[in-house]
Automatic annotation (TrEMBL):
Example GO biological process: DNA-templated transcription initiation
Region forming the signal peptide: none
Span of domain RNA polymerase sigma-70 region: 4-69
Superkingdom of this protein's organism: Bacteria
Subunit: Interacts transiently with the RNA polymerase catalytic core formed by RpoA, RpoB, RpoC and RpoZ (2 alpha, 1 beta, 1 beta' and 1 omega subunit) to form the RNA polymerase holoenzyme that can initiate transcription.
One term of GO molecular function: DNA binding
Domain RNA polymerase sigma factor 70 region 4 type, residue spans: 107-155
Species in which this protein is naturally found: Gracilibacillus oryzae
Protein name: RNA polymerase sigma-70 factor
Amino acid sequence: MKDLYEEYKALLFTVAYRMLGSIKDAEDIVHDVFIQLESVNLTEIENLKSYLIKMVTNKSLNLLQSARKQREVYPGEWLPEPIVSLDANEPLDKLLKEESVSYAFVVLLQQLTDLERGIYLLREVLSYDYQNIAEMLDRSEESCRKVYSRAKQKLEKKKQFNKKNMGKANELAELFLHSIEIGNFDSFINQLTEDVVLITDGGGKARAAIYPIFSKQRVSAFLQGVYKRGTFEGELRIVNVNGEIGILQSNQGSPVKLIIFDHNDREIQNIYVVINPDKLKEIGHKFSF
């Protein structure tokens, strides 16, 4: 069982994390799966990998269903919990650099219903055919096809940038830090698309914008406004977020804000700001992967 855990734990974690957007919940589900597996006759399982992914997906869907009311009354915008590594050489870093675990992609998946997200991941990311997906989720193939088609149409309407240029990512982060240092964001604002969107998540526990902020002009005004209120005071450092670049702000050694840019080689389309302390407490979390 230990060998199976070592072989599949990272894969299963990424499946659960993309479904849930929560580190602890994803780890708990993987743990539960292997506890349950101890009572299963493995010789009767034809494809163990598919069996494990089926278990993780269905457990994730069940958890999302039970937590739906809590999500519906969440104050303001909800963002996934980021995976922040303070050491870029951690083994998990290689896994997180896959596009399917990027923070922007996990955010994008939240535009889907729980079922759409599950079927989209099984089909688009894990490359299962409709017969296998139908068996995993106990649905008809026709139903799975329709749900996948609906999910794909939703995501195609959203702009998603592929962030492969780490040099550009570092450049943007350094530019943002320099803007804070001099108190002028003009150079940074020039790196934004005209229809840029800034989303903050305070979870009702930290001051944050209740609604997304749209357009370069309004984002510029927002950044200048919060700067004048001393919002960026404290230690600022560049960190690894889901295998990419982010900016972590700390006060007296405690994380208070995480900023992530969704960009391509030229400009930034989305800015995500996580301020909810519950989503920052796992920063530097040591995975066993």
